[in-house]
Design goal:
Length: 100
């Protein structure tokens, strides 16, 4: 059995490596002394779905989301979420994405 908390952290790390995206995190994730989710609240795992909230740092969105989905699907292989529906939610677009 895969530890959901650990998997959420690995998913957030993997999405940080996608050029042009970063995981959306809650304010509490920045507080080092407070025990928080390693994904900073950006990943929700349920038996049927995996939801990941991201911030776009550049445009266009479709290639970024395709790359993110591929990363997530790769990490889910061999886990109980391998067949789960993946939902990527863009919570914000960095203002710099509109200038260049």
């Amino acid at each position: 059995m895969t530890d959901p908390r650990s998997l959420a952290g690995r998913l957030a790390d993997a999405l940080s490596a996608v050029d042009g995206l970063r995981p959306a995190t809650s304010a509490a994730a920045e507080i080092s002394w407070l025990p928080t989710d390693p994904a900073g609240g950006s990943v929700d795992l349920t038996p049927e779905s995996v939801e990941v909230r991201v911030v776009a740092l550049r445009l266009p969105l479709p290639p970024l989301l395709s790359a993110a989905e591929a990363r997530v699907r790769e990490l889910l292989e061999g886990t109980e979420w391998a067949d789960a529906r993946i939902r990527l939610v863009v919570t914000d677009i960095d203002g710099a994405a509109f200038t260049g």
